[in-house]
Structure formats: C-alpha cells, structure tokens
Amino acid sequence: MKKNKNSKINKKNASSRKKPLKLKKGLRNKKEKNIKKRKIIKKEKNKKLEEKKILIIKPKKNLIISPIREHNWESWQTFNPGVILLNNRVHFLYRAIGSDGISRFGYASSPDGFFIDERLNYPVYEHPLISKKLNYYSFASGGSFSGAEDPRLTRVKDEDTIYMTYTACDNGLGVGLTSIKVGDFLEKKWNWEKPVLISPPNEVHKNWVIFPEKINNKYAILHSLSPKILINYRDSLKFNENEYISSYYNGEIKEDNSWESRIRGIGAPPLKTKYGWLVFYHGIDKFDFSKYKVGAMLLDLNNPEKILTKLKEPILEPDEYFQEIGFKPGIVYVSGAVVKDEKILIYYGVADSYVCVAYANFEEFLENLIKNIKPKLKQKKLKKIIN
Length: 387
Description:
Structural class: alpha+beta
Number of strands: 22
CATH topology: Tachylectin-2, Chain A
Shape: globular
Strand content: 35-45%
CATH superfamily: Glycosyl hydrolase domain, family 43
Number of domains: 1
C-alpha cells in the first residue's frame, strides 16, 4: 500500500511539474509567433518602401537589338540608337558596324517599345566618306574605321521634318546634321538632306542634341554640359557653308560626387516635362574610369542653361553579364528616350555592342527626380503583346 501511495504521490508531483512547463511553452510559442509576425509586417513595409524608391525597371529580356551575322554591314556591333515616337510606334536608327569596319545606321521599329517586330536588312543612312584611311578617333570611339556614330532624332513640335545629329567620323570627330521628311521616314524612302558639319573643323566634338521645341521662338542646340551648359539659339537649322557652332567642353565636375567625377556627354535629346527639360548624361566614377554610368537632371523650361535639380546617384550602370563581353566592356550609353503609355522608355547601348531598354512610370520617375530619391533597379518579366 505504501508503494502504491508513493507511486500516486510521485505521479501527482510529476503531473504538477508538467503543467507549468506546458504553460511556459505555450507562452514561448505565442511570443515567437508575435515576433515572427512583426518581422513579416516590417519586411512587407520595407518592401513597399523600397518599391516606392524604384526609379528604373529593367525587363529581364531587355536586350532588344543585337548583331546579325548574316548581314555583313551589321555583323559585328549594333548599339547607341536614335529613337522617335511616330504613329504610336517606336522607331529606331541604330549604329551598326560590320566586316568592312564602316559605321552605318540601321532601322527597326516596335509597337510597344519593347519587342522589335520590324527590322530592315540594309542600312538606311551612311555618311559620305571623304577619306578611306583608318580614323584613329573613330576606332577609339566605338570600333569603326569611319562613318557615322550615335544618331539623335528630333522632331521640333509638329514640323514635317525629323532632324538627326550624329558624330561624323571623317578626318577626326565632328557633329553632322541632316534631316528627312516625316512622310518619307514613315514610308521608308530614305531621302536624307545633304549632311553638313556644324562643329568647327580640326576639333573633336560629339553628343550634340536638338530640343524638341523652340525656346523663346528659337531653335536650340545643346552642345556642352561641362564646364557649363552651352546652348546655341538659332532662327533656322539651315547652316551656310563654313558656318559652325563654337563649343567648349572639358568634362570636369567641381562637385565632390564620386560617381560623376567626369562628364562624358549628353545622352538622349531633352524631354519636356511639367517640371523642366529632362536630360540624361554620361559620367565616369572617379574610383573606376572603366565604366560609363548614366545620370539625370532637370533644366529650366525657359532658361535651360539653369539646372533645377540633378540626381546624386546614377540611374543606370553596367551590371549585366553581357555588358562585360562586348567590344568595349563597362559602357552604358543612353541615346534615345520616349514617353509612351504613361511610361518613360530609355534606350541605351551596352559594351558598344547591343541595344537595351529600361523603363519607369513617367510620373513616378519625375516625382522621384524632384525628391532626389536614390534610384534602385528592379527586373520585371515582360509578356509579348500579340496584335
């Protein structure tokens, strides 16, 4: 009997010890669940906060134009496109280099700005050559022996003319200007006006762009960002013989900003916004001179020599594997941008070999630019639109 009594007491004591242990475990589990829940809520809040800071989205399949080996004239490199929006289609004139080493312009177009559904198998523009000798400046500027580089397309308001500035690679590097009627462009009748050089001879000049509207009733050509913004105002875009725009550029930045210790040049033609003229430009990090990065600034609408705001960080930089395996690794070079379907579409060459696209909601992009929010990149898979 004693044994049984002690056994019952032991069981009772054991039972009494287990109950508080179960209670503590339950409290501990509840506390752990609350901590986990708070972490999830915090993570979701941070995710939403980060999404608000996203300035540019790069589609996962953002390489949209690449060389075609079967086309001799564009078998080596295809990059740095001029871009224009006409009839709700995005039209491209891209720089192409083939087996003969001449830089020409090819044509492609897209219904949505992301997927190319039309691309011609022949070049649509070729700069008339003065000399067939190897041009060192041209080779260093993208790999060609001579020809035309880096087109920028501009239609001034509703004029019936598309103007194209480009780098003319003949006896040095200068800025060429030509034009074509909108109707001819759309019908692919490549009746270009005879090109003229608008930069002084025996000087190196690149990356000049035309504003898409007159400013104070004058055509405006943006031709330098450093040491200060230089704009040439004109009554006409017709140039007389031996008439040139005097320009000066040194690329130096006085501000202590590591990512753009040196400005390389202007990107796409300016885009008019409610806040000012949106301008993209290329800069070099003082800690890594091997990479081009892209910045953004806003210029005053009526006085575009005045900078209203400028992002402290680049919006684009070389961060994809194929940007390290082209002709010139580490280069991202914006040469065209349009606004379509409430998105800003930014087109850029990478590694002097391919054409890519990045995009953002236009209004959000502008708001972030005004607030000077540090840009972050996000990839997004795109679904092809079938008409």
